[in-house]
Amino acid sequence: MSTTTNDLVAAEIAAEQEHVDRVYAELAKAAQRAELVHAEGMARGQTDRRGTGDPREEELAGLFERDALVYSASKRRASLEHQHEGLVFGRLDLEHAGRAGGDGASGHDTREVRYVGRLGVRDDDYEPLVVDWRAPAAAPFYRATPVDPQGVLRRRVLRCRGEEVVGVEDDLMVADPPEDIVVVGDGALMAALTRSRGARMRDIVATIQQHQDEAIRAPARGVTEITGGPGTGKTVVALHRAAYLLYSDRRRFEGGGVLVVGPSAAYTAYIERVLPSLGEESVVLRSLGDVVGGMTATRLDPPATAAVKGSLRVRQLLARLSREPAPDAPTQLRVFVGGHAIRLTEAHLRRARSQVLRHHHRNTSFDAAVETLAGLAWEQVQQGERAEFVDRFVDSSEVEAFAREWWRPVDPREVLLWLADQDLVRRLGVVSDEEGQLLAASYRRALTDGEWTVADVALVDDLHARLGPVVDLPSEERGFFEIEELDDASQYGVAALRVGGDGAAGSARPLAPTDEDGRPVVVASDPTASERVSRDPRTRLLAGRIGSADEYAHVLVDEAQDLSPMQWRMLGRRGRWASWTVVGDLAQASWSDLDESSRAREEAFGSNVRRSFHMDTNYRNAREIFDHAARVIREHVPDADIPAAVRETGHHPVELTAPPERLVEDARTALADLLEQVDGSVAVITPEVWRARLDGLADVADRVLVIDPLSTKGLEYDATLVVDPDAIVAESAGGVRALYVVLTRAAHRMTVLRPVDGGQG
Ligand SMILES: Nc1ncnc2c1ncn2[C@@H]1O[C@H](COP(=O)(O)OP(=O)(O)OP(=O)(O)O)[C@@H](O)[C@H]1O
């Protein structure tokens, strides 16, 4: 084997630089071509609409062609820009065995050099200069091992800064390589693992390990489960899998959509760069608080409330709730129709309501509701022709005015807020008194501070499915003039304009703000109005419209162990025809009833085929840090899935105690030490009891973050300062599992600080 002297390394780097320069030159040409196509596409769409109004047919064709050209050219330009950095990251030196000749003599072995990169680039003769990492030709880069070299003599990882090659790391796949195959570097994986952690997760295309590659390239069909302990690369592997699926069947997955769901907004911000850096812009990233269009929630409920809101029992509560009359709905109808005095009592109305809801969604059954009332009214008349009476009844403006109040469309969020009334919750049954109090208190709080919680989103989705979409009731008064006004307004960029119903006859109550006469208020273009609106909690809670569930071709769920049964149902509605990638680790679960969750999860997957991959190497934590965490979890969860940490640093976690009154001061000192020891991010992870007192530590440096335990799910830092582990256990529904999450977030250094009466730093 060759030596790794500086000269040798420099010569190898220079040789690689030559190839990388060629690739960038080719790329510059491709960028120019994309620019030309873009400009040409734009020019092709120039039509003179101003004078004559509508474009001619041939102009329309031109516009369509332009859109297609501009779209693909812009995409190509965007991907060229995103993948500029580290475009070429790998090289394979292969040897193909020569075929035996006709006379039995063996043919010559042939050598091939193949470069692997973020996207495929060819030269003018269409010869590949770089192969896309997802192409079958790149598979040996990830799959070759000394036991099964797959024709690979040497695998080389190129480390680049911008367009410059700054290092190479080799792995030899054969025991006895040809003379000219030199081997340099200490291993690309270790280099990647020891580097500093920033605010964003990075892709691992250059160092994907063989067992990870198997999960990444697994067939798309059915449900692919990726399990394993903390830091085993489950998230990063799943994201590379999303990129691989898009590459392998673009029509299906780009057309049908790929949804990636993670636990929190902090998590989506953390992973958002990975897919663009792999050339994929089309994936939809959502946290559990913004899966449902029209709603965004980041606040978490206290564990006991979250447990009620997440359990399947709450479905029955919602089923009953969705049949309740609106609190302000009229309770009887008195009307003259065809000379007959009709009186429908509260009991009649209740009967009508349950009859209609047996066959219809509430929000799309206005006509059915009026006809059912007509049937009940006819029972009181029984004279003349039934059909004639029903026609008169349905056409009566008084009946219509009543029905518009009684059967007005209800927004699922508005219905959920009815639960602020504790008497109503009690009347609905289903949950215990104590649970009912928690629910009512939670919605009273929402009505005070104008904020939904993450668990509410799944409940709104459930109610939306039960109630049907909120549609405006047909309005005879809404004539041509108003429609034109609406069009005009939209031209001027007015975002939220709604034409109300017919004021006099009693209208469908618009959710958008209205003035005293019930006329719509234009929010977006009127700063004083929007200020007024943002101050009113109820208006904030009901702003916008809830969309119907978008469906996807693939759904990727990270931290799946934390989904409540209701959240599984919410995702199930979005993946009815989808294939799934599901990532999780039960030992990190913060959900208390795991059995109920797994039932709901099975229901979401249906009878899809299952495939599972287990990751057993921890790439995140220094071994010393992980050993500490593993001891904690083993004591309480003996069957926890414990991976092997591959990297030793010699730095054991530091365990400190402090009297409560000195804790903040000691935390500040411990933080200062950590900032000296690492270059990247440092997180102070604190339970709620210390939060307010420790928030100020975030001002110590830009790279410091003060964060609660649950929000660290899926994230990692160079160093962590874990404050009051016992309180972390006590505050979380997941108990010690939550602490396990917290203790496995640091890559390089960790300090644990406990408040102890009379303790010393
Ligand atoms: N093959 C690899 N090459 C380089 N880095 C890797 C590799 N595999 C994993 N890592 C790194 O290990 C760290 C942990 O990965 P990731 O967050 O995906 O783990 P996880 O299993 O989802 O963890 P957790 O369950 O604790 O959230 C990340 O920094 C990731 O980039």
TrEMBL record:
GO MF terms on file? Answer: helicase activity
What Gene3D superfamilies does this protein's entry cite?
A: P-loop containing nucleotide triphosphate hydrolases (3.40.50.300)
Q: Which UniProt keywords apply?
A: ATP-binding, Helicase, Hydrolase, Nucleotide-binding
Positions contributing to ATP binding: 228-235
Segments for region (Disordered):
505-536
Q: Does the keyword ATP-binding apply?
A: yes
**Coiled-coil ranges per UniProt:** none
Residue ranges constituting the UvrD-like helicase ATP-binding domain according to the UniProt record: 207-622
Fetch the PANTHER family from UniProt: DNA 3'-5' HELICASE, UVRD / RECB / PCRA DNA HELICASE FAMILY MEMBER
The name this protein goes by in its record = DNA helicase
Which organism is the protein's source?
A: Ornithinimicrobium pekingense
